[in-house]
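Figure 2 data, in text form.
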Amino acid sequence: MNRYKKSYSLLIIDFCSAVSAWILFFYFRKTYIEFSIFTRDQQFYLGIIFIPLFWISLYALQGTYIEVKKLYRIRIIKLTLLGTTIGALCLFFILLLDDVIPSHQSYYKSLVALFSIHFGVTLIPRLLFVSILVKKIQNRRDGFKTLLIGGNEKALQIYTELEQLEQSIGAKFIGYIRIKDTDTRLDSNLNCLGNLDKLPKVLQENAIEDVIIAIESNEHDILSKLIASIQGKGIKIKIIPDMYDFLSGSLKLNNLFGALLLEIPSDEMPPWQNSIKRLLDISISLLSIVLLIPLYTLTAILIKQNSKGPIFFLQERIGKNGTPFQIIKFRTMFVHAENNGPQLSSTNDSRITPIGKFLRKTRIDEFPQFVNVLKGDMSLVGPRPERQYYIDQIIEKEPHYLQLTSVRPGITSWGQVKFGYAENVNEMIRRMKYDLLYLKNRSLSLDFKIMFYTVITILKAKGK
């Protein structure tokens, strides 16, 4: 069962559970609350169609169907309890509060019955499903594609320890990456997939899910670069304990059946916030495009009258997971402004048209990027997307920049609000620190704060 089949299987189980729970609750309400005869009326059939869709949407917002293979019993109980509580209260106030009932005590009975029936009917098949997945992992019939980085004595030790566990923790080793050419201790146990320069290719081609870093504790620079190059790709990173003191930030300690590893947190936004963020991206972008049609038209006319060339400017930028896309902006420079190669704009840049200066100050040149948001290339708020030409220069000095490609880039960002446009690579690195700060503290409230300050910048025409 691949990751998508597991997700679809759990979704189908939840849908069937929701249908069954609704039928049982409908029968209970008709018989014991309303004291009437159970009949399959229009309300009954509409409930069978729409109520399960409501529950599935709620579970999806919780992130239940993401990384299903990594679910465990306690987590599925927590998810079910929280989801049932929220869902039961919503359905009670939306559907049941206006029921004609004998007494107000019937409201409490309805709510308790709705919660109890749905929780029980949903939890039991979920627990069975997750228990089967966990058992397969423990028996080594399934697992997570794991890459071991390092071929020294420590790497051999952690590999041997994990392989000798009576119950597997899910490490399904694909091979290992050497730090040095002399790291050959694992050659008789694992396939060597190359040196560190092969790491990005190995991660992609083998769909690696977990990485265990086993290097010497004095190799701080290598460790930092490794974490920067891996983090943000949806891959769990684990290290051996004696590296703990050399890393900044809090780490999650996992004592896994005798194999002591430290897991570096992913700093991901909660799934429900991620879902709402994408819904807001789509709805706000659609609304903005419609409302800004007069402004788009006026801007297009001014650009055409001000200088020769196209209205829009397309340029390749690097998006989420390093995927290139074409960013759409209003043209603010004269045509052929980069005949001599890529150049960053400056305060008194002669390549910028007269109308272009105004468009940049008011950030109106960025407005066409709402189309990029609708396409899924960008978000309203996120790190500023850069060209590969400059990314290569940035990561030579700050490899942690690669973490920014773990999320969709944004029309606006904390870096744009606090720093503005960068005129050289050093300024791009200074601005990057604000975007890294955003990445570590992502939330809907922070997004709203950034959008608020962006609107202020537009109204005051303080862009550059």
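Caption note: The chain has a mean pLDDT of 85.
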